[in-house]
Write a structure and sequence with these properties.
The complex is a heterodimer of chains A (225) and B (786). Chain A has 225 residues and is an alpha/beta fold. Helix content of chain A is 34%, strand content 28%. In chain A, the strands form 2 sheets. Chain A has a 6-stranded mixed β-sheet with strand order 6-7-8-3-9-10, with helices on both faces. In chain A, strands 2-1-4-5 form a 4-stranded antiparallel β-sheet, covered by helices on one side. In chain A, helix 3 runs parallel beside helix 5. The longest helix of chain A has 16 residues. In chain B, helix 12 crosses helix 21 and helix 20 packs across helix 23. Chain B is globular. Classes of the chains: A alpha/beta (225), B alpha+beta (786). Chains A and B meet through helix 2 and helix 3 of A and helix 1, helix 8 and helix 11 of B.
């Protein structure tokens, strides 16, 4: 599903050039659950941003479903993203001005799903995430675990092929963290490919494969049994 | 999608009430101010526009020495014959006021006009009763406006009623709807001109018999060029009036719609005003809207950093940039629409106040006229585009990756832009402050400085019946509240009489024009006129036929004499008679300071003493005036007692400037207030952004004044930059304005010192609350909140 080859990314200031990804090559197959680990500054989040088409690589190739997307413009990237990729962030990134229902509904609006269809789909996913009873609440009225469940609901409502999760349990206690990991596992079992950046060995154990990065390069890959 | 935009917009607005209030209140004020200005300017630039033939209508005027709006009563009758191609022509005789007697009641009314049936053909009056073709045909016919008809005959039975006026009995033969007030020929009571047929006939035979208040109007046929007629005018003068009129005399045809703005003319019914005044007001309106838009842009781009995360999330979820621009424009649109509605309401609410302040008469109903509504819509669209597009583009440009890292990538650029816009706002404020101060100084100069006579506590009254004037003076002499009085043809600030003069013996045989005042022996002392040489005017024996005159400095200079002593005993020709100059008086201001002082001759001619100037004791002035009025009613029972304080009369000369001053005060205040709202919002935002920095500085030992300095230094710097732009700009604009006056103040440095100091004070007061709040915040809390 995903194949990156010799991917490069630099961050430049006037005086310093930092290499975030140094000719990184990775392949993720459809239905996989991959964890990416490594110390701070090793390039995990940069990699996730490029995989999510939120950022441009400075070199190398990125094939998504066998299509070269590294040189896609903003419009094409947005189009591919909204139909294929869901995101879960450490800090939830829910929109404070929208209710739970409206936050989850938002990706459907941007993909042009008719209003009548949206209600059913949102309710279904909220039900699945066991957050239906909070549909009319605003994010700040929810606990961290509930907010992340909403974020996961929002990530999956469009039935994406790929979910990118950036430290999804980083802001949660262990109980809520486990719940979120169970949700991701369930989604993966239903066929969704998941790539998750994490610092937590515990969370990484939910994945099929762990890719360890250091200074923008792969240093080790562990297959989980 | 649109519904979603508005839902988000509404929630954003309601969740950020402070920000919303600053924006909406500022723009509401801006819209209200701009709409008021639009209505005022529309009213003023639309003078006489209610007449359907306005663009083909001209006032026939005279240009001999001055541009004179008055012409002989013989002009129209002869033009009708000489120019049969004219579609309409009417001669109007306008009197400022008249006393009407209805039963036992007396009414003093303004705008008394003699007209013929052609008057209605030139001006579009709407007839409510009577036949417009014949209502003014017969002698002793009277047409009233609706308001006057209802005032005198509240039961609606005005038609056919008899009214006594000007010692004549007239019958009401027509009622017209009150014409719009923005007319150069205001009418209230119209008496048929044929009522005075004999007097008119006599005057009509002479080109130079020009009664004050005599105006001539013509209407050209459609597609007939005014230039064609103008070329024929010299022939008309030569053929009709030839032997009476010098070849240099011209008769300009003044477009009806220019009358309100043509300041060259004397004897206008209404004081003309410069179009520049209204263009300046439009400029102020633009500045106000720009200030309000700057608030929007500044506050929106400042808040953009806070909203970067939302933009990032939306982009991650698939929002395209046009969709995000649409969303932000939706928010702006909602705020602008609310502001426009509130602004229109505010304008309607305070229009009567603005009317009084600006001496205009605009009905709130005008707001609902299609032209005004489309203008309001245009304002809304312009504000939405100006204030909304830039922030929308900035906010929608945030990259998700940057926004999640709290690095919008445009903060530095945004900050520079905000600083630039704040400088622009301060520049606008300071230019307006400089303008207001200069207009205020000029107004003060008009009223109080260098008049050349003492105007304090003096009222003037015209005495109607010659035979009883002496008795009235005797009664005044006995009245305890009267300090002194003098009879004359007019007080120093009134100039109604002009006369030709020449001085062949001094080498000036060519006729020039001088103002002429007939004054008694008390006039010079009462008004404290300064004699430069010779004697003042004294009482003259009835059998003394020698002309002895006092002249002013200007007349002396006109004759190339610079030593007043040398002017004494010179012989000059005034009104065709030789007169001996017995003294020279220092120039005094008899006209407005728009014009250069004129030559003036003072002479003792008791027959012309129809006016009395009375200086009142400062105690109990109202009681004294009431007592004078009581004596008046006994002596002149058929005339209403009308008096005027000289300083009020002088103030009227500067009515237009007073309007400008009122406008500057009001609208500058609004512009500055809107700017302050924006500044308050910005400093509040800056304070919240720098909470952590302030906390760290305090932990490290920064004193209170250092923290306050952190915020104020930057704004002081911006005010300084704005001043560098505003000072020369304000000087240039106001210097141009002052050039409209023959006598004006000089712009000194004090005005600029006051402008920058007041800007600093305004900015300090605006930011004080937020600055102190930030400086006094507990650092522990500040750091924890970060």
């Amino acid at each position: 599903m995903i194949k990156i080859t010799d991917l490069q990314k630099y961050y430049r200031t006037e005086e310093v050039e930092t290499i975030a990804l140094n000719k990184l090559s990775i392949e993720v197959k459809e239905g996989e659950f991959v964890a990416i680990m490594g110390p701070s500054g090793c390039g995990k989040s940069t990699l996730l941003n490029i995989l999510g088409l939120l950022d441009d690589p400075d070199g190398g190739s990125y094939l998504f479903n066998s299509i070269e997307v590294a040189d896609f413009n903003e419009r094409k990237r947005a189009d591919l993203r909204k139909h294929n990729i869901g995101f879960v962030f450490q800090s939830f990134n829910l929109i404070d001005e929208l209710t739970v229902f409206e936050n989850v509904e938002l990706p459907l609006i941007y993909t042009g799903v008719p209003a009548s269809e949206r209600v059913g789909r949102v309710e279904k996913v909220l039900d699945k995430m066991q957050i239906m009873h909070r549909r009319n609440h605003y994010p700040q009225q929810l606990s961290g675990g509930q907010q992340q469940r909403v974020a996961v609901a929002r990530a999956v409502v469009n039935n994406p092929k790929l979910i990118l999760a950036d430290e999804p349990t980083g802001n949660l206690d262990s109980s809520n963290g486990n719940e979120v990991m169970e949700l991701l596992t369930d989604l993966n079992e239903q066929g969704t490919t998941i790539i998750m950046v994490t610092h937590s060995e515990h969370d990484a154990r939910y994945s099929h494969r762990i890719i360890r990065l250091l200074d923008g390069q792969t240093v080790m890959e562990n297959i989980m049994i | 999608m649109i519904k979603n935009y508005f839902k988000i917009a509404f929630r954003n607005i309601s969740r950020n009430l402070g920000f919303t209030f600053l924006n909406i209140f500022g723009l509401t004020l801006g819209v209200a101010a701009c709409l008021s200005i639009f209505l005022i300017v529309r009213n003023e630039l639309g003078y006489d526009g209610f007449n359907s033939k306005a663009d083909r209508t001209y006032r026939v005027t005279l240009n001999a020495i001055d541009f004179n709006a008055n012409v002989s009563m013989g002009i129209i009758p002869t033009m009708r014959t000489y120019f049969p191609q004219l579609e309409h022509a009417t001669q109007v005789f306008y009197q400022k006021d008249v006393t009407l007697k209805i039963g036992t009641n007396h009414f003093s009314e303004k705008n008394y006009v003699f007209g013929d049936s052609e008057l209605d053909k030139v001006f579009d009056y709407q007839w409510l009763a009577g036949d417009h073709n014949t209502a003014l045909s017969s002698p002793n016919s009277l047409v009233l406006t609706e308001s006057l008809a209802n005032k005198y005959f509240p039961h609606g039975n005005a038609m056919g009623q008899v009214i006594e006026l000007d010692n004549k009995i007239a019958k009401v033969t027509g009622i017209i709807k009150d014409p719009p007030t923005n007319t150069s020929l205001p009418v209230g009571v119209i008496l048929s001109v044929s009522t005075f047929q004999k007097q008119v006939e006599g005057m009509s035979k002479h080109f130079w018999a020009i009664p004050g208040g005599s105006y001539a109007y013509i209407v050209l046929p459609k597609n007939y060029s005014i230039h064609t007629l103008e070329k024929l005018i010299p022939g008309y003068i030569k053929n009709v009036w030839g032997k009476d009129v010098d070849a240099t005399v011209k008769m300009p045809l003044q477009p009806l719609r220019d009358i309100h703005f043509d300041q060259r003319y004397i004897n206008n019914i209404i004081t003309p005003t410069s179009k520049d005044t209204y263009y300046a007001l439009i400029g102020v309106a633009l500045l106000i809207i720009i200030t309000a838009c700057i608030n929007f842009i500044n506050l929106a781009t400042a808040r953009a950093i806070k909203r970067a995360k939302e933009v990032g999330v939306r982009k991650v979820l698939g929002a395209s940039r046009p969709q995000l621009i649409g969303q932000f424009m939706g928010e702006i649109t909602l705020m602008v629409l609310v502001s426009v509605l509130l602004g229109v309401g505010l304008c309607a609410l305070f229009l009567s106040q603005a009317n009084a302040w600006m001496s205009v008469d605009i009905s709130p109903d005008q707001i609902l006229q299609p032209q005004v509504l489309s203008w309001i819509a245009a304002i809304a669209v312009v504000v939405i585009l100006c204030a909304g597009l830039y922030p929308a583009f900035v906010q929608s440009a945030f990259q998700p990756v940057d926004s999640f890292k709290n690095n919008s990538g445009t903060s530095t650029k945004g900050l520079t832009l905000r600083k630039g816009l704040v400088v622009m706002q301060f520049t606008i404020s300071q230019v307006l402050i400089v303008g207001t101060l200069i207009v205020a100084s000029q107004m003060d100069f008009f009223r109080n400085q260098d008049l050349g006579f003492n105007k304090d506590a003096v009222i003037t009254v015209n005495m109607p019946i010659k035979e009883k004037r002496e008795v009235f003076q005797q009664q005044l002499a006995l009245m305890p509240g009267v300090k002194e009085f003098s009879v004359s043809s007019g007080a120093p600030s009134y100039n109604d009489s002009f006369s030709p003069f020449s001085a062949p013996a001094l080498g000036f045989p060519k006729t020039n024009v001088t103002e002429i005042k007939f004054i008694d022996e008390k006039y010079t002392d009462m008004f404290q006129l300064t004699m430069l040489a010779g004697e003042k005017i004294t009482r003259k024996a009835d059998n003394d036929t020698l002309h002895k005159v006092v002249v002013n400095e200007t007349l002396m200079h006109d004759l190339a004499i610079h030593d007043p002593q040398k002017m004494v005993n010179q012989r000059i020709n005034v009104s065709g008679d030789m007169a001996t100059v017995i003294g020279v008086v220092k120039d005094f201001q008899s006209e407005s300071k728009h014009k250069k002082r004129r030559a003036c001759v003072l002479e003792y001619v008791p027959g012309m003493f129809f006016n009395v100037s009375i200086r009142l004791q400062s105690k109990n002035m109202p009681a004294t005036i009431a007592a004078i009025g009581k004596d008046w009613s006994t002596l002149f029972p058929d005339d209403v007692f009308k008096y005027e304080f000289i300083d009020e009369h002088i103030a009227k000369m500067y009515q237009q400037e007073q309007k400008v001053y009122a406008a500057f005060q009001l609208f500058s205040g609004i512009a500055i207030l809107i700017g302050c709202l924006g500044l308050y919002g910005l400093i509040a935002f800056a304070a919240s952004q720098r909470t952590k920095e302030v906390g760290i500085r305090k932990v490290l030992g920064a004193p209170l004044r250092s923290i306050i300095g952190l915020f104020t230094r930057e704004f002081a710097f911006l005010i300084g930059i704005a001043f560098l732009i505003a000072a020369p700009l304000g000087y240039y604009i106001m210097h141009k304005w002052l050039e409209n006056f023959a006598y004006h103040i000089h712009i000194g440095p004090a005005i600029f010192v006051v402008a920058i100091a007041s800007s600093m004070v305004i900015a300090a007061l605006t930011t004080a609350h937020q600055t102190l709040k930030a400086a006094l915040a507990n650092p522990v809390k500040s750091l924890r909140s970060e």
